[in-house]
Design a protein that fits this description.
alpha/beta, seven-stranded parallel beta sheet, globular, 232 residues, 13% strand, 6 helices
């Protein structure tokens, strides 16, 4: 039975991925920052792992190594969005966004690979966003929210660099935009006003299309940026 590791599994897309993978014949290891939710069949919740701290990698490995397994798919979807503007930038929010989105994945993947929890044929999926695209950023959208957009752009480069480091090991790294979603995160920053015009989908819908994409993703596509549902 395939093993799937989902980091950032407590809500939104992560929670939806956990539920769908667990009902389609997979063993799921679901990583959360806080207390894990009530357990469900085929899901092992591991709580107390804060990816914004340097201890996240070692703490995670200390638990996963006990299972003596190979992980076929790793999905890192932990995120944080703190709003800011040119007039009111936030040092604290930006540091947290960069740490969560683009620094943590480097260290998490490093520890997972060095612990030999993944091998040739394994897939590592970094959940990014089209908000990190310089090309797609239009003047009509204005500026602001520097940490959010720039940390996703940084994550895209992190994914590319990781793919180069891991290609000889046969481990594929994908960077994906899962779609604009109707989540508590987008609502908390006022983006719910764009849900209708922006064609926002539920986390369940985004999870389904992402899982279908991962099925056909392989080393031939490593290091590339993908939007399984298209832009938006």
């Amino acid at each position: 039975m395939p093993n799937v590791l989902i980091i950032g599994a407590s809500k939104g897309l992560g929670d939806a991925l956990v539920k769908e993978y667990s009902t389609t014949g997979n063993n799921v290891f679901a990583i959360t920052r806080g207390e894990p939710p009530e357990s469900i069949p085929r899901v092992t919740y591991i709580g107390g792992v804060d990816v914004a701290t340097e201890r996240a990698g070692p703490d995670l490995i200390s638990v996963l190594e006990q299972y003596n397994m190979n992980i076929e798919t790793v999905i890192i979807t932990a995120g944080y969005f703190g709003t800011e503007s040119f007039d009111e930038p936030s040092w604290e929010k930006e540091v947290k966004m960069y740490t969560t989105s683009s620094i943590a994945p480097v260290f998490l993947v490093h520890h997972i690979v060095k612990a030999k929890l993944v091998s040739k044929g394994s897939k590592i999926i970094l959940v990014s966003s089209e908000s990190g695209s310089i090309t797609l950023r239009h003047e009509s959208e204005g500026g602001g929210n520097y940490g959010h957009h720039a940390s996703k752009a940084a994550l895209n480069m992190v994914g590319k660099l990781l793919s180069l480091d891991l290609k000889d090991k046969g481990i594929a790294v994908g960077i994906v935009h899962p779609g604009f979603m109707r989540t508590e995160m987008t609502k908390s920053v006022g983006f719910d006003k764009f849900w209708e015009d922006g064609g926002a989908v539920t986390p369940d819908e985004a999870a389904s299309s992402l899982i279908e994409f991962i099925k056909v993703f392989d080393i031939g596509k490593t290091g590339e940026y993908w939007a399984p549902r298209g832009p938006g």
